[in-house]
């Protein structure tokens, strides 16, 4: 569902003060006497996420305090103040004009993100506290970012019965229509003829109405070229290497890479970045049937590299391989893939960090700086060349699932790099799911790395 917008009734907005324990006394001393006494009587200590509504002299609502916690608490959480949106009484609030610009911007974006509710299947009440866009921030930019994140969350949260390859294609077409992009989809029956054999192999076991396809969207007429490739495995049974039930429960999110690149594309198009954008999404369902691809099969690829299948549950890198090879043929200035690719990445960095790979130190530094500015944490991982031998089985050019279980995220990234070469390339091995609620990040589907990349675009692509 769309997130709330900023409120416009600035003149009647209630004061909202963000407070740390260190500056609590100074903040209290500046309040009206009744509000100050109330805060003291309630024992407000400005702990992280603490919220206190303050009365006016007539017993109505004067405003509110929101605790940020001490430095340690702030380091352990993002969007601390945004949680107030779901805790405060109904009303329109305005941040203290003295709020630091970075904090005001983070709070404003977090307020929009906190208002997200996935209500397709059950009614959910939205927060009733609204925020006026703080002075000095780019409200339009924050709206675009929040809308892109809402799209990503909606797509991931939708169960596979209602978000198969056809529905993912429809979502991409709707986005293209909204912003005047062009879109072409290669259907299952044309995948082999168009030399996309890996996409076909992974998706061919699915039901006819869930057949594999490649979605190809383009937007923009001038500027540097950017190609985004998103893994669109709408449900992953594991194929003939069937997942256990506990591992299959969240596989509706296995198209999280596709959802994230569509959300990022929406941000780019909504704000009219001067680039030429291409989005490639191999959309499949990894199913089990008589036609399923098998362990031990050796598959052809668009790149001309043969791939031995040692695990049909390592299918994401296969569909991405053909899409990356196709994208590389146009030699874009930058190509980025995003995928819910490996459990190894989750073991390495957990669900909160987006690990990424790039050979370009300058790109890595730009992404890391941008991530810190927008509270979208990332962590660089190595394209470790000595592990290349692990993905070379001998019987074929490449192995889709090296035995032993070591360095699983790295070997997957090395596999993908073979198909992206020689293009300047970055790969994100994301989780796409928030396992427990946090301010501005409810439990469920979530974008990872998209805001960091969007913030980094001017530096990555040399935009003015």
What does this structure look like?
With 464 residues, this protein is an alpha/beta fold. The protein folds into two domains: 14-128, 3-Layer(aba) Sandwich (Leucine Aminopeptidase, subunit E, domain 1), CATH 3.40.220.10; 143-461, Zn peptidases (Aminopeptidase, 3-Layer(aba) Sandwich), CATH 3.40.630.10. The chain contains 15 helices and 19 strands. It has helices at 24-29, 33-41, 71-75, 101-114, 139-157, 165-179, 188-191, 197-203, 245-248, 256-270, 316-328, 343-349, 361-373, 408-420, 450-461, and strands at residues 14-19, 51-55, 61-67, 91-95, 129-131, 182-186, 213-219, 225-230, 232-236, 276-286, 298-299, 307-308, 334-339, 354-358, 378-381, 398-399, 425-429, 433-434, 444-445. The strands form four sheets. Strands 6, 7, 8, 9, 10, 13, 14, 15 and 17 form a nine-stranded mixed beta sheet that branches. Strands 2-3-1-4-5 form a five-stranded mixed beta sheet, sandwiched between helices. The radius of gyration is 24 Å and the shape is elongated. The model has no long low-confidence stretch (mean pLDDT 97).
């Amino acid at each position: 569902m769309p997130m709330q917008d900023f409120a416009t009734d600035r003149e009647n907005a209630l004061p909202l003060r963000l407070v740390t324990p260190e500056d609590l006394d100074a903040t209290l001393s500046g309040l009206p006497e009744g509000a100050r006494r109330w805060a003291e009587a309630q024992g407000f200590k400005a702990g992280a996420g603490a919220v206190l509504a303050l009365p006016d002299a007539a017993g109505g609502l004067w405003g509110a305090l929101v605790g940020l916690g001490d430095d340690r608490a702030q380091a352990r959480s993002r969007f601390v103040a945004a949680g107030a949106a779901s805790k405060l009484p109904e009303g329109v609030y305005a941040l203290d004009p003295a709020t630091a610009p970075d904090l005001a911007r983070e709070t404003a974006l977090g307020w929009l993100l906190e208002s997200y509710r996935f209500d397709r299947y059950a009614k959910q009440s939205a927060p009733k506290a609204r925020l006026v866009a703080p002075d000095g921030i780019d409200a339009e930019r924050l709206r675009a970012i929040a809308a892109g994140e809402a799209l990503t969350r909606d797509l991931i949260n939708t169960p596979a019965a209602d978000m198969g390859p056809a529905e993912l294609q429809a979502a991409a077409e709707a986005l293209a229509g909204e912003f005047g992009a062009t879109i072409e989809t290669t259907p299952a029956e044309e995948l082999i003829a168009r030399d996309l054999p890996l996409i076909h192999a992974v998706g061919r076991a699915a039901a006819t109405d869930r057949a594999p396809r490649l979605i190809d969207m383009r937007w923009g007429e001038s500027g540097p070229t950017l190609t985004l490739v998103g893994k669109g495995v709408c449900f992953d049974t594991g194929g003939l290497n069937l997942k256990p039930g506990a591992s299959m429960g969240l596989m509706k999110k296995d198209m999280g890479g596709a959802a994230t690149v569509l959300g990022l594309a929406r941000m780019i198009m909504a704000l009219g970045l001067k680039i030429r954008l291409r989005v490639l999404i191999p959309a499949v369902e990894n199913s089990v049937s008589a036609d399923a691809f098998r362990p031990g099969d050796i598959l052809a690829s668009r790149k001309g590299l043969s791939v031995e299948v040692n695990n049909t549950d390592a299918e994401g890198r296969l569909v991405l391989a053909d899409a990356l090879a196709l994208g590389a043929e146009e030699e874009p200035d930058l190509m980025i893939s995003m995928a819910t690719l490996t459990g190894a990445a989750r073991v390495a960095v957990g669900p909160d960090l987006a690990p990424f790979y790039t050979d370009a130190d300058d790109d890595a530094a730009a992404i890391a700086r941008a991530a810190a500015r927008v509270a979208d944490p990332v962590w660089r991982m190595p394209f470790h060349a000595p592990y290349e031998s692990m993905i070379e089985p001998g019987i074929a050019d490449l192995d889709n699932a090296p035995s032993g279980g070591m360095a699983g995220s790295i070997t997957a990234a090395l596999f993908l790099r073979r198909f992206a070469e020689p293009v300047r390339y970055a790969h994100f091995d994301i989780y796409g799911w928030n396992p427990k609620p946090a301010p501005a990040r409810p439990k469920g589907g979530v974008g990872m790395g998209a805001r960091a990349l969007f913030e980094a675009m001017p530096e990555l692509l040399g935009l003015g």
